[in-house]
Amino acid sequence: MGPGVKENETTATEGRKQFQLIIFLCLLNISSFVVPVRGFAMKNCKISYNIAICVQSKLRAVPQDIPSTVKGFDLSANKISRVKISDFKNLPVLTKLELNRNFISQIDNGAFANLISLKKLNLNNNKLVELREDLFNGLSNLTELRINGNRIRAVASTSFKSMISLTFLDISQNKLHDIRKVHSIIQHLPQLRELYIQKNGFTTFHSWELTNSSLQLKYLDLSRNPMTVFQITADVLPNLTWFNVGGSSQKMRWDVRNKTFFSRVSTLDITGLQMSLNDMKTLLESVNSSLTCLRMNAMNHNFAALINISCSIPTLSKLQLRNYKLSSVSSDLIKLCINVTELDLAKNQIQNISDNTFRSIQRLRILDLSRNKLSSVPAATRNLPILQELDLSSNLISKLECDDFANQTMLRQLNLYQNSISALKGCVFKDLIRLQVLKLQSNQMSELHGAFNKHLPNLRQLLLNQNKLTAIKHGEFRGLQSLQNLSLHHNQIHQLEMGCFIGLMNLTDIQLQENRIKEDEINKGSFNDLINLRRLELRDNNIRYGNNSTLPNAPFSQLSRLDTLGIALQHGKGKSYLPHNFLQGLTNLRVFNTRNIQLLTLHKDTFIYTPQLQELDISTNEFRDLSPELFSPIPNLKSLYISKTILGSLEFLVNASLSKLEFLQARKNQYSVISEEIIKSVPALVYVDLQGNSFRCDCDNAWFLQWIENNNQTQVFDAYNFTCNYPVHLKGKELLELDISSCSVDIEFIYFISTTCTVLLFMVVSFTYHFLRWHLAYAYYLFLALLFDTKHKNKQAPKQYDAFISYNTHDEPWVVQELLPKLEGDQGWKLCLHHRDFEPGKPIIDNITDAIYGSRKTICVISRRYLESEWCSREIQVASFRLFDEQKDVLIMVFLEDIPTHELSPYYRMRKLLKKRTYLSWPRAEEHTELFWEKLRQALKTREDPGEDIFQLTVVDAHWQ
């Protein structure tokens, strides 16, 4: 076996290896291309602002189709009983997890191990009984843990050891019973600042049970425990500032040996605490130097005694005294509270307050008298010159007098809601020059009687909703030049007089929904004075237009700064239209809600006035079709609500130019097919809600099904509950269960076949080029010769030349100096030379073929340069094909150089065929040049009969045989 064969085998082996490698890489590329990605079509949840919401979904296990990018996960109010180790393994960026209100009784160890970013965990109201060792492993970044409302009895010593960042812990309403179990928890929590352990059945609290802990607590809630003893003998709570120890159902003994132990407590809550009066004094004395806020509601001691004890604390400024059965309050009762600035006497059933009750507490800034039984504004409040907030809500006040708020020039907020006030007087608010917030909702007012047309220059917010107002008169709010928010919703307003909002130059928000306003009231320019208005709510009124005609005066033409507009019907029948200039002037409108006004259509020019519109709600109307042109003026639209219409298709989106649309809600329509063009027309879509539509379960929806399951940008809400409506035999079947394999070609198989064929073709081409390229080159030129011959074989024109000289330009000197003088000068032959006789402007290939077929013979002057020339190669191929085709001796070869056989590669087979034809060698004729020219003359002279004798010269190179 020769080395050449060995080399070929090695090459073939390497070739096979390369082919196998190419196939492997191609298959690997295919598999990576078709692997499905997790989309946002979740079975029971939805994504909102990067939070997965699965509330009240009747889940019995944690869903596994949640995107790994969510930062919030709300599983509240489900039926989950066990948290498994695999439930949260793919949520590395989750920061908040809500598991409250489930039936969780078991949590596997390591269930939270992968939640490395979790900050807040809520396990409230479950059925946990035990916190086992290493339960919270992995939660080193957790800062807030809530386990309120479980049945926890036992806590392992290492349960909390990994939560080194925890600052807030609420483990209230469990069954710990022993404070030492709390110690086992907090000893591993160096950053803990807030601890809530109320209602755990603790009967005693001894500081020695916590002595091994380094507590930095600032907030501690021990309320609602049946403690009988509270004993502090060591300073275990040196940083405590907020302390709640109230609500004990047992009489408690207070034993704090050193008054400095609670010297930093500023807020104390002893509501409902059962203890002796002496212990009460001792308790309050322990916080005597720092306490600012005291809550002691529903105590069983004498009310006056409690006030005397509490108000004797010199630092006290906030006092809450609720849930006492007081029918009246006198000046003697709170005369010691001279330093109090905030007094809360709500929920005490107070009916009367003497006029001088608050005279002694001149520093009072906030007074809460809500949820009592006052029938009028107490005159005692007039003696509070620096009062800033007064709450008289939820009482029995039926009318307001002119002197009710006399001298209260410093008042900032006044709450009078949920009373029985039927009317106002023009003088009632005359002294409230600094009032900013006035709440009068939920009363019985039908008339305002000019109460707001002169006074209240600094009022910012006025709530008059849920009254019985029927009309807003001219100049009704003239005096409220600073008003920003006006609530008039849920009244019976049906009349808006011209100029009713005059003076409200700074109003930004007005709510008029749930009234009886008709289109005539807004058409007359009632809102023209609200030039700075940002939000106008007119939903659930009686606004209806009977035709689509143009309004003579657009109702909102002066509201160029309006941001949000809502308009909808409250009741009534009949079809409605929206005049196409209804929104004229609203150049900055971003949100428009026009749902449920029984619209039949929208004019294509409706939104030409609102180029900034970003949110549009046209749900619950009777649209049969929408023009894409309708949306052309609002290219910035991001949210579109179009539910409960009779639209049969979303095709209008295709040409609507909504490239920025992110949110689409289209529930309960007649959409049967969602095409690829529809989805691609809204490339920015991140949320789509298509619940309750009549989907067709056939191949028309095949692309839509694939998109639901594979897209990783758009959340398709409730997609797993989509059901089929057509065809009839599939009605009720879930859409995502439809087998669509027959609807499309197997893309993976096609990729495999096409890739394989490509690789095989590449290998064949490479093999052919390496081993057969010269054969192909020869075949190519032979084919060209065939074409040329076919073109000229029927031409019988007489020969113009005795010979055509085929030579390379580099050999032109020999042709001109040697060949031409001898053959044309001495022997008289007529020759054809390309540089002299080719027709100018004619294609080269045509000149060549015409010259060869127009000459009796062709002389090829062959050199190495000749073999390298493309045109020379074509000339000799055409000439040789003429030789084969005509079977005439028409070809003479003259070699100017000795050329070895292996350099004749593409002409080797041709030489074998022409070995009996005439050929001459110029280098061999150096000593016999005359004989060379004579033999050439004889070759030109011989007839073209191939049977005639062939001339042989001694100057011919013998190795050519």
UniProtKB/TrEMBL annotation:
It is a single-pass type I membrane protein. Signal peptide: none annotated. GO terms for biological process: inflammatory response; innate immune response; toll-like receptor signaling pathway. InterPro entries: Cys-rich_flank_reg_C (IPR000483), Leu-rich_rpt (IPR001611), Leu-rich_rpt_typical-subtyp (IPR003591), LRR_dom_sf (IPR032675), TIR_dom (IPR000157), Toll_tir_struct_dom_sf (IPR035897). The chain crosses the membrane at residues 21-41, 749-772. It holds the Pfam family LRR_8. Keywords: Glycoprotein, Immunity, Inflammatory response, Innate immunity, Leucine-rich repeat, Membrane, Receptor, Repeat, Signal, Transmembrane, Transmembrane helix. GO terms for molecular function: signaling receptor activity. GO terms for cellular component: plasma membrane. It is found in: Membrane. Residues 799-940 form the TIR domain. PANTHER family: LOW QUALITY PROTEIN: TOLL-LIKE RECEPTOR 13-RELATED, TOLL-LIKE RECEPTOR. Belongs to the Toll-like receptor family. This is Toll-like receptor 22. It comes from Seriola lalandi.
